[in-house]
Structure formats: structure tokens, C-alpha cells
Specification:
The chain has 138 residues and is an alpha+beta fold. It has a single domain, classed as Rossmann fold, CATH 3.40.50.300. The strands form two sheets. It has a three-stranded antiparallel beta sheet with strand order 3-4-5, with no helix packed on it. A two-stranded parallel sheet has the order 1-2. Helix 1 links the parallel strand 1 and strand 2. InterPro entries: P-loop_NTPase (IPR027417). It comes from human gut metagenome.
Length: 138
């Protein structure tokens, strides 16, 4: 049975050489022992500022890319070997759309859910919408 390791806000660990080196070693050891590492961050550009992290990302078999800033296109295309055309699926689009890279395969997806539906309310992470809904129910 595999162990999954999730590192949310991974870019914070990339700010210091010590934690970056530790993260890299951990990434390698967990993979070598059959585990799976997942780094989570809002903006991939924060990860791409680190050469070590860029290498880790390039060696990752699975990458899920959601909405990104238009100014980051060049670095993203280079690091992830994604064409500018494919990046159209992650630039200034609504939540629920993106790109999935698995190995060398890159697949665009659109999993938008109708706003206000039960499923939308269950998976919605928009803090402002949740606060507004909470205020309405009081």
C-alpha cells in the first residue's frame, strides 16, 4: 500500500536552501519506497523560481495545472514542455478547467459545475461565496 504525502503551500518550503534540500531528498526517498508526493501551490511560478523545484516538477509523472497568470506562460511552457496552444486551457479561464499532464500525455479538461448546484456547494472553495451564502442563511 502506497503512502501519499501532501505538501500544501509547497512554495513556502522553497524559500530557504535548507528546506528546499530537505524537500528534494524527501521527494526522492518517498518515491523510491513506492510512495507518492504531491506539492500544492496557487501559482506555479513560485515553484519555478527554484532550480531544484523546477527539476522536481519536470520529473513528476503527474501534474494538474489550473488557472495561471498570463505573464508566467514562457516559464511554464519551458518547464513542463507544454505548448502555448495548450496553455490556453489555463490562462484566464473559469474555475474547473485546466490541463492534466500524465507522463508525456497532456489532456485539457473542463469540469465546470453549475453554480448553486448541490455539487457546486459541496466542492466550492471560494471563501467569499461561502461567507455570502452563510450570511444569506442567517
Amino acid at each position: 500500500r502506497s503512502t501519499w504525502l501532501y505538501v500544501d503551500e509547497v512554495h513556502v518550503l522553497l524559500r530557504s536552501p535548507f528546506s528546499t534540500d530537505y524537500l528534494q531528498q524527501m521527494w526522492k526517498k518517498v518515491r523510491k519506497q513506492g510512495g507518492l508526493c504531491t506539492g500544492i501551490t496557487q501559482n506555479i511560478i513560485d515553484v519555478l523560481r527554484s532550480e531544484t523545484a523546477t527539476t522536481m516538477l519536470s520529473n513528476s509523472a503527474f501534474v494538474l495545472l489550473l488557472n495561471q497568470s498570463n505573464k508566467d506562460i514562457e516559464k511554464i511552457t519551458e518547464a513542463l514542455e507544454i505548448s502555448p496552444e495548450q496553455l490556453n486551457y489555463v490562462i484566464d479561464l473559469p474555475s474547473g478547467t485546466g490541463l492534466l499532464r500524465f507522463g508525456k500525455k497532456i489532456v485539457p479538461f473542463d469540469n465546470t459545475v453549475e453554480k448553486g448546484s448541490e455539487l457546486y456547494n459541496l466542492y466550492n472553495t471560494n471563501m467569499y461565496e461561502k461567507m455570502e451564502k452563510e450570511t444569506e442563511t442567517k
